[in-house]
Write a structure and sequence with these properties.
The protein is an alpha/beta fold. Strands 5, 6, 7, 8, 9, 10, 11, 12 and 13 form a 9-stranded parallel β-sheet that branches. A 7-stranded mixed β-sheet has the order 3-2-1-4-14-15-16, with helices on both faces. The two termini are about 25 Å apart. About 40% of the residues lie in helices and about 25% in strands. Bound molecules: guanine and zinc ion. Guanine binds next to α3.
Length: about 425
């Protein structure tokens, strides 16, 4: 691909404004984004850059360009079970989720859901995600093949769950062998990455948790992805099974699963000891607000996680989450903050949904900030996507428009999604 340029309003928040202040915010009311071979060459003021790129064809785009969203926790096999009525976590898994995941033994089914799922991510402006598959290795093949075809940055892995239900479990040996085979098959292909994925402490034996720790140590380019401290009944069951562990995090720690490549979804009910340990270890939290509200799990304490310096990303956690939209998810994150007496700043919200998420996935050098040299994944936001948004944002300041998008916006506000400089979704 040769050089191309996009002229539009540009915004990116590569550093956390709660640490870096105003300097973290890169905004150009009349900006130019220059792309070559899928990478950002320049991001700045049109008037400054135009002379340098005078020969480059320019497409003028109506709207606000921001980095593509990074969803740090989502389950593709749960796509068809979103909005499942009536239960909290453990019963919801038994009644709705395990039966749905058992269907992924059929590769054709996995292929069809993976295609819909990735297209739905793109329709919502999400260009990168850390994704749960199922216990079946071929569920990962289906997702990775579909992601490769779309050139998306997807990190996933076969779920380890040797204590799972009859229809949906592996063994220590098949879990290890399946993981090794997938890593060998997919390493270095496209923009894919692997995550060693024990479902949670309750669905793996001690021997399988130890094996997951060994796999993580043996593959320095892999992440570790699991659930932690989501629901009170879950936490009580973990405490009953591991009476000598200091807390839920310590269960994972004992098996070598807590480190800078570890991403833990939820982390709602952790105390200061566990959060301090996560901060020291460089581990990350995927904050999943719509899921935490839908399952009645609890209110994540962002300020306390911040106080311990824990890396934070945002996850939709579909199918417990109720929207694929990271904008809608940020709206619920704001409301959870309000319940805890803290108002999430709109620039920080955008940071968490982009560069902050990239950092939790160890990808901050490649995505999330639209910095020169980074991959050109970006979204064109439409502040006038609905009559109400148009009315609310008319004449509004940048921060006010951003906040309105966060509270009122969803897939309707995504007019285009670009993956590695190529338009992958355009709203009809
Ligand atoms: N804990 C273990 N499995 C799951 C899951 O599929 N979804 C959620 N939200 N929590 C879990
Ligand atoms: Zn989850």
């Amino acid at each position: 691909m040769s050089l191309t340029a996009f002229r539009a309003e540009l915004l990116s928040v590569p550093e956390d404004p709660s640490r870096g202040g105003e300097a973290a915010i890169r905004h150009h009311a009349d900006g130019l984004l220059v792309v070559e071979n899928g990478l950002v060459v320049a991001f700045g003021e049109h008037a400054d850059l135009a002379p340098r790129f005078a020969e480059v064809p320019v497409e003028t785009l109506p709207g606000l360009i921001v980095p593509g969203f990074v969803d740090t926790h989502i389950h593709y096999p749960q796509t068809d079970r979103i909005a499942a009525y009536g239960n909290q976590l453990l019963e919801w898994l038994e009644h709705h989720i395990f039966p749905a995941e058992a269907a992924f033994a059929d590769r054709g089914h996995a292929d069809r859901v993976a295609a819909f799922f990735l297209d739905e991510l793109l329709r919502n402006g999400t260009t990168s995600a850390l994704v749960f598959a199922t216990v079946h290795a071929q569920s990962v093949d289906a997702l990775f093949e579909a992601a490769l075809a779309r050139d998306m940055r997807i990190v996933s892995g076969k779920v380890l769950m040797d204590l799972g239900p009859e229809s949906l479990h592996d063994s220590v040996e098949s879990g290890r062998a399946g993981t090794e085979a997938l890593i060998a098959r997919w390493r270095g292909r496209g923009r894919l990455g692997y995550a060693v994925t024990p479902r949670f402490a309750l669905t793996s034996s001690d021997a399988q948790l130890a094996s997951a720790g060994d796999l993580l140590a043996a593959h320095p380019d892999a992440l570790m992805h699991t659930h932690l401290s989501e629901n009170r009944a879950e936490i009580a069951a973990v405490a009953a099974r591991f009476p000598s562990a200091r807390d839920y995090l310590d269960v994972y720690d004992r098996f070598g699963l807590v480190g800078p490549r570890s991403v833990f979804a939820h982390c709602i009910h952790l105390d200061d000891r566990a959060l301090a340990r996560m901060g020291t270890a460089g581990a990350s939290i995927a904050f999943c607000p719509t899921s935490n509200l839908f399952l009645g799990s609890g209110l994540f304490d962002l300020a306390r996680a911040d106080a311990h310096g824990v890396k934070i990303g945002i996850g939709t956690d579909v199918g417990a989450g109720t929207s694929f939209s990271m904008l809608a998810t940020l709206g619920e994150a704001y409301k959870i903050g309000q319940m805890r007496g803290v108002s999430l700043d709109p620039f920080r919200a955008l940071h968490l949904a982009t560069a902050g998420g990239a950092r939790t996935l160890g990808l901050a050098d490649r995505i999330g900030g639209l910095q020169p040299g980074q991959e050109a994944d970006f979204v064109l936001l439409d502040c006038a996507a609905t009559p109400l948004l148009a009315r609310r944002t008319a004449g509004a300041t940048l921060v006010d428009r951003l906040f309105a998008l966060q509270i009122l916006g969803d897939d309707r506000a995504i007019s285009r999604t670009y993956v590695a400089g190529r338009c992958a979704w355009s709203r009809p």
